[in-house]
Amino acid sequence: MSNPSSTPQLLNRLRMRQVALILAIGELRTLRAAAQHLGMAQPTASKMLQELEDALGEPLFDREGRGLKFNPAGEAVLNSFRSLRNTVVALGRELHELHLGSTGKLFVGSITVAAPSYLGAAMIGLKKQYPLLSIELVVDTSDRLIELLREGSLDMVIGRMPDANSPDNQDCLFRPIAEEALAVVAGCSHPLTHTGKRKGLDFAALLDFPWVLQLRGSPLREVIEQEFRSHHAALPQGLIETSSIITATDLVAQSSMIAVIPLAIAKRYEKDRHLRILPYSFTHTLTAWGSLVLRERTINPITRAFLSLLHADGKP
């Protein structure tokens, strides 16, 4: 069995073709198909696999007929090799940018709430340090952004940490930045904007109007559903569901619908007289959002500088 003291020996014995073989078996599930995919004879692949198991000191598979099923040790090796492949992909992208003669490119994924405040300030600060740097920003939900991070398409993510206790999420390193307050919003001429200004609105008053909600499965949707359950109320019928805050706010501004959006964004819309924040405070809140990187991936200097600016503003 391998241990930390045997790491140098393992690195000396590990070959990239073995990494490619394990990854191919993970996709194709048979040694024969994996060997054909890599253009090698099956006996060669079998010998290579045996040498890898000898180097690791652990069998990696349970044989099932002609197929191979990863045992727990094999799953651990497969996940590590996938992380290695993603690191190589990120390295290749960075080297390509340097070959083109630029100072590089930063790929960032972010949830919507970070865009108007922390993210903008950090991007402006980074451009002062690296004027020729290109930045590509992808805005989506945390779960989708983390998938892109693991694939090597993003250098870092600004979002929420998935279930930290899940073994599937141990590859992510999360640093919190801020909590996210929520606001119930309506159009400027909505009937509820003229009531309850001093003492606030009861939840029952909100049920008299149609709602625009986020898609099922999103963190914000779950918080809204918790609020309904705590008041023993069913979700309204005839919902409009969308992940787009722009669409939600446009619908609210032109109708009697109401919606729940991050308070930071709601304040901007209210300042521009696009909508109004209703005097209702949510009982339930979202978990903190922050930065996410992969533990085993080396952070390049540009990403490190961006993280420093992001957290300096957030004072984690």
Layout: helices, strands, pairs:
Blueprint: H1 7-13, H2 16-28, H3 31-38, H4 42-56, E1 61-64, E2 67-70, H5 72-99, E3 105-110, H6 115-129, E4 134-139, H7 142-151, E5 156-159, E6 172-178, E7 182-186, H8 203-206, E8 211-213, H9 219-230, E9 240-241, H10 245-253, E10 258-262, H11 263-271, E11 276-277, E12 289-294, H12 301-314
Helix pairs in contact: 2-3, 2-4, 2-5, 3-4, 6-12
| Share of residues in strands | 15-25%
The gross shape turns out to be elongated
Relevant CATH superfamily of the largest domain: Periplasmic binding protein-like II
User: What CATH architecture of the largest domain do you see?
Assistant: 3-Layer(aba) Sandwich
Helix content: 40-55%
Tell me the series of helices and strands, N- to C-terminal.
HHHHEEHEHEHEEEHEHEHEHEEH
Radius of gyration, Cα only, in angstroms? 25 Å
The CATH class name of the largest domain reads: Alpha Beta
Question: Main sheet?
Answer: 5 strands, mixed
How would you describe what is shown here?
The protein has 316 residues and is an alpha/beta fold. The chain folds into three domains: 4-81, Arc Repressor Mutant, subunit A (Orthogonal Bundle); 102-178 and 288-314, D-Maltodextrin-Binding Protein, domain 2; 182-277, D-Maltodextrin-Binding Protein, domain 2 (3-Layer(aba) Sandwich). Helix 6 (115-129) links the parallel strand 3 and strand 4. It has helices at residues 7-13, 16-28, 31-38, 42-56, 72-99, 115-129, 142-151, 203-206, 219-230, 245-253, 263-271, 301-314; strands at residues 61-64, 67-70, 105-110, 134-139, 156-159, 172-178, 182-186, 211-213, 240-241, 258-262, 276-277, 289-294. The chain contains twelve helices and twelve strands.
